[in-house]
Amino acid sequence: MLARSATIIKWVLYALAGLACAVVQAAVLQRFTLWGVIPFLYPLIAALPAAFEGPAAGTVYALAAGVLCDLLLPSPIPCFYTLIFPLVGLSAGLLSQSLIPAGYLCSAAASLPAYLLTGVFHCIVLWATGHAAWTAGLSVTLRELCVSLPWSLPMAWLFRKVYRRVHIDD
Fold first, then answer.
1. Which one of 3, 6, 11, 40 has the largest count of C-beta atoms within 10 Å of its C-beta?
2. H helices of the chain, where?
């Protein structure tokens, strides 16, 4: 069990790692298009720390990441990312806790539910507003997953460094 100050430092380091990934997304990746989409790292920012920290702490971190994304990104409904990212964090945490141990393989595997949950929820929102966009929405989701999946490895390396730094005694 970490002391209170160590817990605060841990989450500040995770937030700084997530911020670094968001800066790469905004400053670099926004300018590159592959298969008609740009790499979209925000679901990975919500999922990867949860894969290392587990479902409870990961869900809370993903909720905070969702609030931040809702403040910074346009979305089809208010609180879009706040609603979906806790599910992303929970699924990544449960995946690492029950099926695949936390690491690079788990990070790549956790990206699949992260993008599927985000894409399906986006399609549901579009459908509820009267737009039939299931095939187009799922096509964009699949392309975003394929374009963003290679970024899960360096991001997993970054979040793993944070995890090892704060869990030295574990």
1. 40
2. 4-27, 42-53, 55-72, 80-98, 104-128, 134-148, 152-166
Of the candidates 60, 48, 38, 19, the one whose C-alpha atom is nearest the C-alpha of residue 154 is 48
**What is the pLDDT, as a whole number, of residue 7?**
79
For the residues of 85-129, what is the DSSP string, one character each? HHHHHHHHHHHHHHTS-SSHHHHHHHHHHHHHHHHHHHHHHHHHT
Asked if 151 contacts 39 with a C-beta cutoff of 8 angstroms, the reply is yes
Collapsed DSSP state (helix, strand, coil) of residue 37: strand
The residue whose two tokens read 């409870």 is 56
Average confidence (pLDDT) over 84-105: 86
Please, are residues 63 and 85 in contact by the beta-carbon 8 Å criterion?
yes
pTM of the model: 0.86
Name every residue whose Cβ is closer than 8 Å to that of residue 131 and which is 6 or more positions away in sequence. none
Place of tokens 């737009």: 131
